[in-house]
Amino acid sequence: MREIIAMHGWAGNGDQWANWRDLFEYSDWEWQTGERGYKGINPYMPMWNIKLDQNNHKKVAICHSLGFHLIDKKVLYSATHVVLINSFSRFIPSGKDNRIITMALNRMLNAINTPNEAVMLRKFHIKAHKPSNINFASTEENLPQISKSGRLRLKNDLKLLINSDSLPMGLNINAKVLIINSEQDHILSDQTREKLSDDLTNHLVSLPRTINLQEEGHSISKIKNIKKIKHWLELEDEK
User: Where are the domains of the chain?
Assistant: First the structure.
């Protein structure tokens, strides 16, 4: 059996996986989605389906960005395969960009629960979706619906991102890992991507595989690229 648990990143939600879910479920993958519940939706973290045949059970964790640090550690530990989409071990690089990125993140943190919150989130989503365009009409309508508890999670999760400095607890050393890097990512620095690769190489028994996507930003939107990831996972079935 083949099962996926997907976890979105900061300021995201489970709806971002709609195209992914349709594509994988069409090929008889079982799909579940984690939800942080920023916008009044109850937070939810699925667990692996224990009813499936555990002797022939491919468990795939797909994490976007901070989702690598947000996914349940038991889920991560039991994953046979992990797909890391524009993810990181340490977000803030230790090199020359450290001060600039730290200051920018602190400005974002201070904007939460202030009149500047909506503008800050709008700028973040534009940057995350570049070079793709995004329609903000519906997004901005939903911003006032962020719940009090959701706003607290939004702030605490941003602090988690700021303070990240290593691989999250729970990653199994025997997992097969695929790193997805977008060549037009405007969120992650080159040093941040390099550190993730180095940390995974030092942690895992098998070297991680890397796929670099052209014409994609921090958020993956093109069906052809989702299919590339699906193809890699299905090739793993044959090994």
Answer: 2-93+162-237
Query: Looking at domain 2-93+162-237, which CATH architecture does it have?
Result: 3-Layer(aba) Sandwich (3.40)
Q: How far is residue 60's CA from residue 1's CA, in Å, rounded to a whole number?
A: 11
Q: How many C-beta atoms lie closer than 10 Å to residue 79's C-beta?
A: 26
pLDDT in tens, 54-109: 667 899 999 999 999 999 999 999 999 999 999 999 999 998 889 999 999 999 99
Q: Tell me how far apart the alpha carbons of residues 37 and 14 are, in angstroms, rounded to a whole number.
A: 9
Per the document, the length of the chain is: 239
Buried (b) or exposed (e) across 182-221, using 16+ Cβ within 10 A? beebebbbebbbebbbebbeebbeeebeebebeebbbbbe
Single-letter residue type at 28: D
Nearest to 178 by CA among 129, 227, 212, 203: 212
Say if pTM beats, i.e. exceeds, 0.85.
yes
Strands annotated E in the chain: 2-7, 30-33, 58-64, 81-85, 176-182, 209-213
Q: Do 181 and 218 form a contact (C-beta atoms < 8 A)?
A: no
For residue 50, the 8-state DSSP code is T
| Number of helical H runs and strand E runs in the chain | 9, 6
